[in-house]
C-alpha cells in the first residue's frame, strides 16, 4: 500500500463527516422542538389545574403526574385531554370524535402539538413544517403547501413542506384564473378531495403528469372571508376517508387561518370605510356599502347595510335612512334564494373575486307581493367591506336594447325568442322578408330548416347546434323558400342572452337579405378561380370525391321499414369541404332474410379515404351474402384492407339481425360500441374486443349477441359525433347517453336532435344509424 494518501479521498471523507454532523444536528433540533412543544402543552395543562384546583404550580405538577399514572397514560396525553376539555373549540370536538377510534388519544396530542407549533411559529414556513411533522405524517401525507389568497383571487405560496426548494420557487405565485386544486377550493369555498390528482388534469405543486397521487385542498379563513388554502398531498391514490378525518383536516386549516392573517392583501376594514362611503356617494347609480355580520363561532351569517348612497331608491318605497343599518336578508329576504344575489355577495367577500352581471333578476317584496326587475349588478370587495352597485332596466330600455341589437346585427329583420316563455317577437321587416303577414305565426329558429333549401340543411344544423346547444353567437347563410315561391339568399345572425346564473334568457338576432351580395360574391369567386388554376384543380378533385361519397351515402335518406324494424340513417359531412372523409354506413336485407347493419370509419381524408370507404363498404355487403357471422365477416374484411392497392386502416361495426328470434349478433374492429335505449334508459352495449382493420393480417374477432325487444332503439355512430379537442372521449359519450334519454317518439326527428345537440368540435364527418324495433 502506498504511504501517500489520495487528496480526493481525504476531501470525500471530510464531506461525509460534515454531512453526518449536519444530519445529527438537524435531528437534535427537531427533537428539541418536539420536546419544547410537548413541554408547552404540559405547562398549559398545569395552568388549567392551577385555576381549577386553586393550587400552586408545584402542586399542579404533582397532581398532573398522579392523574396520568392513575389513568395509565402519559403526561402529554393527559395534558392534551385537559386542554380539550377546557377549550371546547373545533380541535377539541375533532379530538373527542376520534377518541373512540384506534389511536384517537395520540391524534388528540398531535392536533394540540400542531396548534402549539403554529402559535409559536415565527413564519408560515415553520407552520407548514410543523403541520406535516405533527399532524399529517401520521395520516400518510407526504407534502404540505400553504397558500395566501390575494385580493384578485391570486395565490401566493407562503409555506411548504415535503416539496423541493426548486419546486416551491416554480410555484411561488399562481395568477388569477389558473385552474389548480387550491383555486377550486378557493372558488367553491369548500374542501376539494382528489382520490387521484392525475385523473383531474389539474396542475399543482409537486404533481407530475401521469403520476397517481392523492390530494386535498381546504379553504382557510375566518368570519366568512377566505384568507388562503391548505393543500395536502399523499404519495399514493387516496381512499375514501371517514368523516372524522375530514373534520380533522378542516380543523388544521382553521388553525392555519391565524398565521395567514399576516398575509392578507387588504388592510382592516376600519380605515377604509369612510373612503368607501365617499366612493359610493360619488356614483351615479344606486349603491350599498355592506359590512359582514358573524355569529359567536365566527361564521358569516349576514351583511349589515352600513350606508346607502343618495342615488339609492328602495323598491318598496322606504327611505334610505330606514334601510341603512338593517341586515341585508332582513331588508331584502328574496336576495337569499339559492344562487341569487346574497350567494354572489358571499362569494365576493370570501374570495375577493369581483362579480358583475348585465342581466340579473332582482326580486323585492311589496306588501308581501314579489316584484321582479332585471338589473345590471356589480359586487366588489374593499378591505373587509363589500360595495354593491346596480342599475335597473325598465321595459322601455329592454325594447331599446332589442332595437339596438337589430340595427347592429343587420338593420333589418330583428327577432327575439324568450327561452322561458317561448314567446317570439318579430319586427315588421322580418315578416316582409319571409313573405308573411304581420298576424301570421313567427317561425322558430328550430324550424328554420323546413323553410330553406334542402342543400342548406347541414349549415343550418351547425348554426342551430352552436346557438341553441353550445350557446355561442353564430351566423349562417341559406336559401329561404318563401310561400310565394320566391327564393332569397339570407344571412341569419343570432346570439344567446344569459342571466347572472348563466341561464339562457333569450336568443336575439337578425335576418338580412343578401341576394345581391351573393351574386356579386359568385362572380368574384369565378374570377378568383380563373386566376388560381391549381386551386381550381384541387377544388374539382375534392368536389368529385365529395360527389362520390354523397352518391353512396346521401346526407339524409328516407327511412326503411323491414321485418319489424324501422331504420333511419344520417350522414353529416365534414364542416370544411376539403376534409372529405371515409365514414360509411349500410343497412340492407340479405338473401337469408337477415338484416345487415354496419358503420365504419377509414382513417384520414381525401380521395384515398373515400375510395377505401367504397371498397370496404361494398366488400362487407358482398361477404355478408355468404351467411357468415359478424366475427368471420370482420376477419375477412381485415384481409381485404391488406390487399388494397393503397392499404388503409379503419374501424367498423358489423351487426346481423334475425327477425325471427329478434337476436342481434355483432362484432367490432376498434369502433365505439352501439347504444341501446330501452324503457327510457340509454346504455352502451357491453364492449367486446376487436383490433381495428388493417393493422395486422391475422386477427380473430370476438362476437356477442343481444336480444332486442319491441320499443327498443339501437344507435350506431362514428366518432365524429362525439369527439372534442378539450375533453376526454368518455365524458363526450356520457353527454351522448344523456341526450339519448330525451329522444322524440319519431325516429327521424330523434336523429336530427342528436346531430343538433352533438358537442363534437373536430370538424370530422359523421355517420349515424337508428334502428327501432316495432
From TrEMBL:
Keyword match Hydrolase = yes
Keywords assigned: Hydrolase, Transcription, Transcription regulation
Instruction: Spell out the Pfam families in the cross-references.
Output: ANTAR, GAF_2, PAS_3, SpoIIE
Q: Which residues form the ANTAR domain?
A: 22-83
Q: Which Gene3D superfamilies match?
A: 2.10.70.100, 3.30.450.40, PAS domain (3.30.450.20), PPM-type phosphatase domain (3.60.40.10), Winged helix-like DNA-binding domain superfamily/Winged helix DNA-binding domain (1.10.10.10)
This protein's record includes keyword Transcription regulation: yes
Instruction: Read off the InterPro entries from this record.
Output: ANTAR, Bact_Sigma-Reg, GAF, GAF-like_dom_sf, PAC, PAS, PAS-assoc_C, PAS-like_dom_sf
Any GO MF annotation of the entry: RNA binding
Q: Where is the PAC domain?
A: 474-526
Enumerate the PROSITE patterns for this protein. ANTAR, PAC
Domain of life assignment:
Bacteria
- Which protein, by its recorded name, is this? Transcription antitermination regulator
Amino acid at each position: 500500500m502506498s504511504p501517500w494518501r489520495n487528496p480526493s479521498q481525504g476531501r470525500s471523507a471530510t464531506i461525509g463527516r460534515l454531512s453526518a454532523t449536519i444530519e445529527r444536528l438537524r435531528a437534535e433540533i427537531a427533537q428539541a422542538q418536539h420536546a419544547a412543544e410537548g413541554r408547552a402543552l404540559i405547562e398549559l395543562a398545569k395552568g388549567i389545574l392551577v385555576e381549577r384546583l386553586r393550587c400552586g404550580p408545584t402542586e399542579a405538577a404533582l397532581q398532573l403526574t398522579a392523574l396520568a399514572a392513575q389513568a395509565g397514560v402519559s403526561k402529554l396525553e393527559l395534558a392534551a385531554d385537559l386542554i380539550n376539555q377546557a377549550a371546547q373549540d373545533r380541535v377539541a370536538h375533532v379530538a373527542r370524535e376520534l377518541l373512540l377510534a384506534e389511536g384517537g388519544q395520540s391524534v388528540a396530542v398531535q392536533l394540540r402539538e400542531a396548534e402549539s407549533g403554529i402559535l409559536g411559529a415565527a413564519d408560515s414556513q415553520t407552520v407548514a413544517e410543523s403541520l406535516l411533522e405533527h399532524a399529517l405524517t401520521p395520516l400518510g401525507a407526504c407534502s404540505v403547501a400553504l397558500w395566501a389568497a390575494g385580493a384578485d383571487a391570486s395565490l401566493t405560496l407562503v409555506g411548504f413542506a415535503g416539496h423541493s426548494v426548486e419546486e416551491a420557487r416554480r410555484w411561488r405565485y399562481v395568477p388569477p384564473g389558473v385552474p389548480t386544486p387550491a383555486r377550486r377550493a378557493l372558488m367553491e369555498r369548500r374542501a376539494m378531495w382528489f382520490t387521484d390528482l392525475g385523473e383531474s388534469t389539474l396542475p399543482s405543486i409537486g404533481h407530475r403528469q401521469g403520476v397517481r397521487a392523492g390530494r386535498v385542498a381546504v379553504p382557510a379563513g375566518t368570519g366568512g372571508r377566505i384568507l388562503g388554502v391548505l393543500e395536502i398531498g399523499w404519495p399514493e391514490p387516496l381512499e375514501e376517508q371517514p368523516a372524522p378525518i375530514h373534520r380533522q383536516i378542516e380543523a388544521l386549516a382553521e388553525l392555519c387561518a391565524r398565521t395567514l392573517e399576516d398575509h392578507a392583501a387588504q388592510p382592516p376594514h376600519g380605515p377604509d370605510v369612510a373612503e368607501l362611503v365617499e366612493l359610493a356617494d360619488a356614483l351615479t347609480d344606486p349603491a350599498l356599502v355592506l359590512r359582514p355580520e358573524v355569529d359567536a363561532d365566527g361564521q358569516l351569517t349576514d351583511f349589515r347595510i352600513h350606508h346607502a348612497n343618495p342615488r339609492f331608491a328602495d323598491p318598496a318605497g322606504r327611505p334610505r335612512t330606514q334601510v341603512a343599518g338593517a341586515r341585508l336578508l332582513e331588508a331584502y329576504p328574496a336576495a337569499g334564494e339559492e344562487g341569487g344575489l346574497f350567494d354572489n355577495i358571499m362569494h365576493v367577500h370570501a374570495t375577493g373575486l369581483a362579480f358583475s352581471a348585465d342581466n340579473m333578476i332582482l326580486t323585492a317584496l311589496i306588501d308581501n307581493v314579489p316584484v321582479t326587475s332585471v338589473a345590471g349588478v356589480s359586487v366588489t370587495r374593499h378591505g373587509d367591506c363589500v360595495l354593491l352597485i346596480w342599475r335597473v332596466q325598465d321595459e322601455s330600455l329592454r325594447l331599446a336594447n332589442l332595437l339596438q341589437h337589430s340595427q347592429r346585427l343587420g338593420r333589418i329583420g330583428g327577432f327575439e325568442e324568450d327561452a322561458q316563455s317561448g314567446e317570439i317577437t318579430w319586427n315588421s321587416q322580418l315578416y316582409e322578408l319571409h313573405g308573411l303577414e304581420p298576424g301570421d305565426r313567427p317561425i322558430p329558429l328550430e324550424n328554420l330548416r323546413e323553410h330553406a333549401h334542402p342543400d342548406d340543411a347541414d349549415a343550418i344544423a351547425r348554426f342551430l347546434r352552436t346557438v341553441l346547444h353550445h350557446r355561442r353567437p353564430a351566423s349562417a347563410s341559406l336559401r329561404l323558400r318563401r310561400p310565394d315561391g320566391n327564393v332569397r339568399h339570407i344571412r341569419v345572425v343570432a346570439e344567446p342572452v344569459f342571466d347572472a346564473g348563466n341561464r339562457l334568457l333569450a336568443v336575439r338576432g337578425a335576418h338580412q337579405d343578401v341576394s345581391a351580395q351573393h351574386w356579386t360574391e359568385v362572380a368574384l369567386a369565378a374570377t378568383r378561380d380563373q386566376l388560381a388554376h391549381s386551386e381550381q384543380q384541387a377544388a374539382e378533385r375534392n368536389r368529385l370525391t365529395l360527389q362520390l361519397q354523397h352518391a353512396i351515402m346521401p346526407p339524409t335518406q328516407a327511412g326503411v321499414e323491414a321485418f319489424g324494424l324501422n331504420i333511419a340513417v344520417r350522414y353529416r359531412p365534414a364542416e370544411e369541404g376539403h376534409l372529405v372523409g371515409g365514414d360509411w354506413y349500410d343497412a340492407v336485407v340479405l338473401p337469408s332474410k337477415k338484416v345487415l347493419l354496419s358503420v365504419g370509419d377509414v382513417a384520414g381524408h381525401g380521395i384515398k379515404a373515400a375510395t377505401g370507404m367504397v371498397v370496404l363498404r361494398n366488400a362487407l355487403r358482398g361477404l355478408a351474402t355468404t351467411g357468415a357471422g359478424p366475427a368471420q365477416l370482420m376477419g375477412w374484411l381485415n384481409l381485404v384492407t391488406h390487399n388494397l392497392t393503397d392499404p388503409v386502416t379503419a374501424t367498423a361495426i358489423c351487426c346481423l339481425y334475425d327477425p325471427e328470434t329478434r337476436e342481434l349478433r355483432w362484432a367490432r374492429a376498434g369502433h365505439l360500441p352501439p347504444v341501446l335505449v330501452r324503457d327510457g334508459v340509454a346504455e352502451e352495449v357491453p364492449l367486446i374486443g376487436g383490433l381495428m382493420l388493417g393493422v395486422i393480417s391475422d386477427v380473430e374477432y370476438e362476437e356477442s349477441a343481444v336480444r332486442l325487444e319491441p320499443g327498443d332503439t339501437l344507435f350506431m355512430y362514428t366518432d365524429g359525433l362525439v369527439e372534442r379537442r378539450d375533453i376526454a372521449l368518455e365524458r363526450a359519450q356520457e353527454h351522448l347517453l344523456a341526450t339519448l334519454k330525451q329522444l322524440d317518439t319519431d325516429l327521424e326527428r330523434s336523429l336530427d336532435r342528436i346531430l343538433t345537440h352533438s358537442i363534437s368540435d373536430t370538424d370530422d364527418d359523421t355517420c349515424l344509424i337508428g334502428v327501432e324495433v316495432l
